[in-house]
Amino acid sequence: MSMKSFETQPTSALRISQALKDFWRLPSLTVARFTLLSYLRSGWILGDIAIVWLLYAAFFLEFGGNVAYFFGTTGQGLGALAILGTIVMVQRAMSARVYLPLSRLTSRSAYIRGLVIATGVLRFPLYLMMMLLGMGFHTHAPSWGIQGATVTNMLVGSVGLLANCVVISTLVVVFSAPIATRLARIALLAWFAAVLYSNTSLGPLASFLSISRLPLIPMTACFNFGAAGSIGWPGVAALLIMALYVVGLTMLGEYWLASRDLILQ
Amino acid sequence: MPVIECKELTKSYGKHIALNNLTLTIEEGASFGLLGENGAGKSTLVRLLMGFIFPTSGQIRVLGEERVSRAHARVGYAHERPIFETRFSGRSYLTYLGKLAGLWDTANSTRIHEVLEQVNLQEAADRPTGTYSKGMLQRLAIAQALMTNPQLLILDEPTSGLDPRSQWEIRQIVASLRKQGKTVLLCSHYLAEVEALCDTVGILRRGELILSGAVADLLLSQDVVEIVLAHDQSASAIVARLDIGEQVIEALGNILRIPRRQQSTLLARLVDAGIDIASLNLLSRTLEDVYVQTTLTADNDVSSTLSSGAGGQGGKP
């Protein structure tokens, strides 16, 4: 018995190693790595870094602030950066240069999955940089750190913030040209308009349009993780829905891209 | 075995018909030249074959696959204007594309070494592609097309815009690939290049395949025999007398120009009629002559159809 387990151990290790190797070699991960590398070498990453630095300079260098302030400000800033950075990355990746990678793939799905992974992964180092800067030196007393920051509330807040940024970047990838049609993009903008109107106005129309805010409930829950300092079961449900958003949006993007004529310049 | 099969293939963008009812078969091992002016539908056909766009109607099959992207591993494709990441070296870009095709580790590096050697790009392989000349970029495009040792190569205007030396280099590469027995679909504006590299051609005109066939047959069919009549006899008078106007290309002075395929019939008629012939000359045609003749005929057909249509509508007497 002991001999048998001794013999199977290396086999299992080999299987795991092979599975990891196969995973690493997935076409979508290969596309993601190359897209990220291309973004880094193109110099566009310096733009992201500059924006993170500006966010820090504008909101933290002078004021410092507590955990709620940090996640409230950073959540919005990095959310906006997720939109900008993803637009640039997708426009670079979906030019005529896409023909050669696509001619090597048996389906377009791997390419769009790669883009979603690349844009999502980039949120992590940018957030890490923001967090380190935010926790670092500022002129407001006490002269450094975030007031009330603990390992737990920072970790919990980071999970919520990153989940929001990843969903935003996925949404931008899927609704970019040439993946989504013009009609789909108009529909998305109309939904945004309905959300903003119902959020800022009063009256029967605004109350009716408040149903457009329902899909944002999980995002709001994640946004509040840092201030609350805990996740809880509703938070876990929100995170699961966010994961479903990413998967669902990616599948929608795959479906759209698979049926589109690609005439790119 | 057919490598490419298109049956009644049509592609339209709104009201514009880019490709109209195209039926085409390219057999394994053939080298097929696709000719046509800008906007004739060559690039549309290539995009359809690569699965970048989808047919409006009709059928398409590449290496037996109806969903053409499934054949990608066995197809090498070089885009007409190859765009590479300028900050990556040729080798690293080939590594990426090789990985996408499932080539990793030693298999990847060995294959890259082979294809770079094949296109003579070893020395520049580690330089960023942004520093490459146009000819080098085209060679890199062919190198990436060869990465998976494909059965079928689709080369979209590989020598377009290149200097004569670079054009010659690309042609040498394509010629060597032909010798290896690869099936090649070559889109080009250069007729001499297609004549030299291809055994079969198709001419696209406004989305329609107006001519296709073996280059040798087409040239033979377009060859002209010049008959010089003795004693300064009037060629046009003889044409009228023998009523052979439909079979004659041109009657000028004492010279009759006839299609080579009509040579034996017409010569027999002339001899039977007791007409003396001073000499016979064979005027060989090039692919350019075939192309010009075919497209002019197509244009004339279109104009005559249009004018007859206008006559019908306008009540022309």
What does this structure look like?
The complex is a heterodimer of chains A (265) and B (317). Chain A is mainly α and 265 residues long. Chain A has one domain. Chain A is built from twelve helices and no strands. Chain B folds into two domains: 2-212, Rossmann fold (3-Layer(aba) Sandwich); 224-283, Alpha-Beta Plaits. Helices cover 39% and strands 26% of the residues of chain B. Chain B is built from ten helices and 13 strands. Residues 309-317 of chain B have low confidence and may be disordered. In chain B, strands 5-6-7-3-8-9 form a six-stranded mixed β-sheet, with helices on both faces. A four-stranded antiparallel β-sheet of chain B has the order 11-12-10-13, covered by helices on one side. Chain B is elongated, with a radius of gyration of 25 Å. Chain B is α/β, with parallel strands linked by helices. The chains are: A mainly alpha (265), B alpha/beta (317). The interface between A and B is medium-sized, with 25 and 29 residues.
